Amino acid sequence: MFRAFLSLLLIAPAFNAAAMDADRQMASSLLAISQSRMPEALTAVDLLTQQHPNFRLAQLIKGDLLLARAQPLQTLGNTGGTRNADLEQLRDEARQRVRALTDPLPNDKVPAYLLTLGDQYRHALVVDASRSRLYVYANRAGQPIRVADFYITIGKAGTGKQKEGDNRTPIGIYSISSFKSPRELTDFYGSGAFTLTYPNEWDRRQGRNGHGIWIHGSPSNTYSRTPRASEGCVVLANDDLKRLGQYIEIGNTPVVIAEQVEWVAHDVINARRNDLSAAIDQWRQDWESRDVSRLLDHYSASFRAGAQPLPAFAANKHKVNAAKSWIKVGLDNVSLMLYPERPDFALVSFVQNYQSNNLSDRTAKRQFWSRENGRWKIIHETSL
C-alpha cells in the first residue's frame, strides 16, 4: 500500500498549486521517500509535525521514517500485518491527500451544477465526498473559476442523509446561514462552525429530517480527522476553516454537496444553461400573456407553492388574472444550479419584479425545476 502511494507520486507532473500547505509538505515528504531521499523526507515531515504536532497522519509517517533506519518500509504504518481500524482510516486520509496532488482536476472543466451564479454570489462552495475535498469557486460574470480547495471529512456512514442520527452528510444545494464562534461551542468544533440550511424545502418534501449540519473545525488535539469521521457535518482543519472563511458571506454563499462531482467542459455547461434558461424565459412570457392555461402548462402535476398544491395554485391564478389588463415580469439576480446526482433537476433562484395594472411587487423566489417527458417544469416554489 505504501508503494502504491509512492508510485502515484513518481508519475505526478507537479503539485496542485491550489492545495494547502499541509498537503504540499506531506507530499514533499512522500516524494522524497519515493526517491530514496530519506533524510530530506524526515526533514520535511519534521517541519510538518513541529507546525502541527497534533497531525496524526504526519506523526505516523515520521514513525515510519524512523523505523526505516532499521528495516525496509512495506506499508504505511508498519504493524506487522495487524489490522487496525484507526490505522486504516489514516491510510485513507493519506490516499485522499496524495490524490489531490497527483490527480489534479482538469483546468478546462468545472462542476456540472454551477450553470449561472447570480450577481449576489461572490463565491460558491462545492464538496466532492468521493475525493474528501471542498472546492471554492469565484463568480466571474456568472462563470465559476476555482480559487482554492481543502481536505475535508464527511459523515461516518457516507452521504445521502435521510434522518436524524444516521451519521450521513446530505446531498443537495444549501447555503451558509450563520457562523458560530468558538465561544459559543465546545472544543469539539474547533475554530468555529458555519451552519447550513439543511433540511431545505426539497429535503422536507422528501421526508428527510435532522438538523445541525455544519461546516466546522477540528478539536484542538486533532489537526485533521480521517475522511469519514463526522456525524454528518463537513469538517476541516482549523487553519483551513479560517482560510475558507474569507470566501464566505453569511446568508449568501451557496454550498453544493455531491457524492462524486460531475466535471464537464464549458461548452456542456453553456448548452445546459441555455436549455434551462429558455424554459424559464418561456414561462415568464407565458405569464405575461395572461393566458392562464399557457402559464399552468409550465407546472408539474405534483407542483407545490409552499404547502399549496397545484389545483389551489391554479384556482388562485385564474382569479388573480381575471382582474389584470396587463402583466410584466422581470427576473433579476438569476442563479441556475443543477442538483447533484440529478442532471434533470435544478434549483433556480431570482428576484421577481412583477408589475400589473393594479399591483407592483418585488419578491425573492426559489424554484425547483424537473424535466418531465423532455420538458422542464416547475415542481416546487418558495417565496422568501
How would you characterize the overall build of this protein?
The chain contains ten helices and 19 strands. The protein is α+β, with helices and mostly antiparallel strands and 384 residues long. It has three domains: 101 residues, no CATH class; 153 residues, Beta Barrel (L,D-transpeptidase catalytic domain-like); 119 residues, Nuclear Transport Factor 2, Chain: A. The strands form four sheets. An eight-stranded mixed beta sheet has the order 5-4-3-12-7-8-9-11. Strands 2-16-17-18-19-14-15 form a seven-stranded mixed beta sheet. The longest helix has 23 residues.
Helix/strand layout:
Elements: H1 2-10, H2 21-34, H3 38-51, H4 56-67, H5 85-102, E1 109-111, E2 114-116, E3 123-128, E4 133-140, E5 143-151, E6 154-155, E7 172-180, E8 193-196, H6 201-205, E9 214-216, E10 228-230, E11 234-235, H7 238-245, E12 254-258, E13 263-265, H8 266-288, H9 292-296, E14 299-305, E15 308-309, H10 310-321, E16 327-339, E17 342-356, E18 360-372, E19 375-383
Parallel strand pairs: 3-12, 6-10, 9-11, 14-19
Antiparallel strand pairs: 1-13, 2-16, 3-4, 4-5, 7-8, 7-12, 8-9, 14-15, 16-17, 17-18, 18-19
- Outline, from the CA principal axes? elongated
Largest beta-sheet details:
8 strands, mixed
CATH class identity of the largest domain: Mainly Beta
Structural class: alpha+beta
The CATH superfamily of the largest domain bears the name L,D-transpeptidase catalytic domain-like
- For the secondary structure, the number of strands is 19
Separation of the first and last Cα atoms:
51 Å
Note the beta-strand portion.
25-35%
Low-confidence region ranges: 8-20
- What is the CATH architecture annotation of the largest domain? Beta Barrel
Q: From N to C, what is the helix and strand string?
A: HHHHHEEEEEEEEHEEEHEEHHEEHEEEE
- Rg, please? 24 Å
Query: Taking all residues together, what is the mean pLDDT?
Result: 90
Total domains: 3
Strand order of the largest sheet: 5-4-3-12-7-8-9-11
Q: What is the CATH topology assignment of the largest domain?
A: L,D-transpeptidase catalytic domain-like
> How many distinct helices?
10
What share of the residues lie within helices?
A: 25-40%
